[in-house]
Specification:
Elements (H helix, E strand, L loop, with lengths): L14 E4 L6 E2 L2 E2 L3 H10 L3 E6 L6 H10 L9 E3 H12 L5 E5 L2 H9 L3 E3 L8 E4 L7 H12 L3 E4 L5 E2 L6 E2 L1 H12 L5 E2 L6 H7 L7 E5 L2 H10 L3 E5 L6 H5 L9 E3 L11 E3 L9 E6 L2 E6 L3 H12 L8 E3 L2 H9 L5
Parallel strand pairs: 1-4, 1-13, 4-5, 6-7, 6-8, 8-9, 9-12, 13-14, 14-15, 18-19
Antiparallel strand pairs: 2-3, 10-11, 15-16, 17-18
Helix pairs in contact: 3-4, 5-6
Length: 339
């Protein structure tokens, strides 16, 4: 492995916190290798947690979904933005206060579970609006929320993910719906609860006092940035939303500690790399040439990625990358980059 430290990445951590969509499963099917990876962590006695921005399921529902896929999970291992938003409102509002819910039934259930009253209309006098992803959210819901916020209700968003992964590519996420209200109201939400805010990861990290926590995610703008804000190491897996071009263009607040194609990187030293790598990692080198970056040498595509990250992150704008040899062309193709 190109990273310093333990031979296996996972040996350096007492707990692994997983994002779900794009890491453990895609919509309703486990990603290849995910069931085995989580099972192996459990067999080794390592703490496991799940942190998701998806507010359309309660923790118990997520645990049931995972267990049904072959990933044994307990509700107390699942941290959702819906539950976190409900707890925040419980601490801010008097018991029984009306809260206008824009989202799925799971979000309504979380609001009711903390002793608040879910409502549907601005005429119900909500003290707050809580907005989370729900596939049935429509114009009427967004209109009621707009009226309520304009009347003085606090506006809480469970997350601002622009997209959701799917088998047909990225689809509109809660962030796209938050953008509708942002446009109508001319302002941002008062509070965003989910990633990249650090609360979910910080809560998980406190459970293993004295031990290190590794965050595993597929999105630079939520999982990786959230881990950095929480002061935790992170592993980007290339099974979901963020890809290599996005990684090369990432700003300092969205750069992971490690990169792997999938969860095999937790256990296989050859399947993970620390980024950025040294300028000659694994037999590769990158030079500036004719306004671009030229990759030469030979080795594994992941080692090539570590070298490319080092070069790209040292510039203000990422120049085009091209291959200086047949081996380099094959590595760039494996990374999803044009040669």
């Amino acid at each position: 492995m190109s990273a310093d430290g333990p031979e296996r990445l996972v040996d350096g951590y007492a707990q692994v916190v997983f994002d779900l969509d794009g890491v453990i499963y895609l919509i309703d099917r486990p990603i290849p290798g995910a069931v085995e990876a989580v099972g192996r962590l459990h067999a080794e006695g390592r703490a496991v947690a799940y942190a998701t921005n998806n507010a359309s399921r309660r923790s118990s529902q997520v645990a049931d979904l995972l267990t049904g896929m072959g990933v044994p999970a307990r509700p107390d291992e699942v941290l959702t933005s819906a539950a976190a938003a409900a707890e925040l409102l419980r601490d801010r509002l008097p018991a029984g206060a009306p809260v206008l819910v824009v989202g799925a039934e799971a979000l309504r259930a979380e609001i009711a579970a903390v002793g608040l009253t879910p409502v549907d209309r601005a005429d119900d006098g909500p003290r707050a609006v809580v907005q989370g992803y729900g596939p049935q959210v429509g114009w009427t819901d967004l209109a009621e929320a707009t009226v309520a916020v304009r009347a003085g209700a606090t506006w809480i968003a469970t997350n601002t993910d622009r997209t959701l992964p799917s088998g047909r590519g990225p689809l509109p996420g809660n962030g796209a719906l938050v953008a509708v209200l942002r446009t109508a109201l001319g302002r941002d939400p008062d509070v965003v609860v989910g990633k990249p805010e650090p609360a979910l990861f910080a809560t998980a990290a406190r459970r293993v006092e004295g031990g290190r926590t590794l965050v595993v995610g597929d999105r630079l703008d939520t999982d990786i940035e959230g881990a950095r804000r929480a002061g935790l190491d992170s592993l980007l897996v290339l099974t979901g939303v963020s890809d290599v071009p996005e990684l090369l263009a990432a700003g300092p607040d969205r750069r992971p500690t490690f990169v792997a194609r999938d969860l095999a990187g937790l256990f296989d030293p050859a399947a993970v790399v620390r980024v950025p790598g040294p300028p000659d990692a694994g037999g590769w080198s990158v030079t500036a040439h004719d306004g671009g970056l030229e990759l030469t040498g030979s080795g594994s595509p992941l080692d090539a990625l570590a070298v490319l990250c080092a070069a790209a992150w040292s510039t203000t704008a990422v120049p085009p990358v091209r291959a200086g040899s047949p081996d380099a062309a094959r590595a760039l193709a494996a990374l999803g980059l044009p040669a």
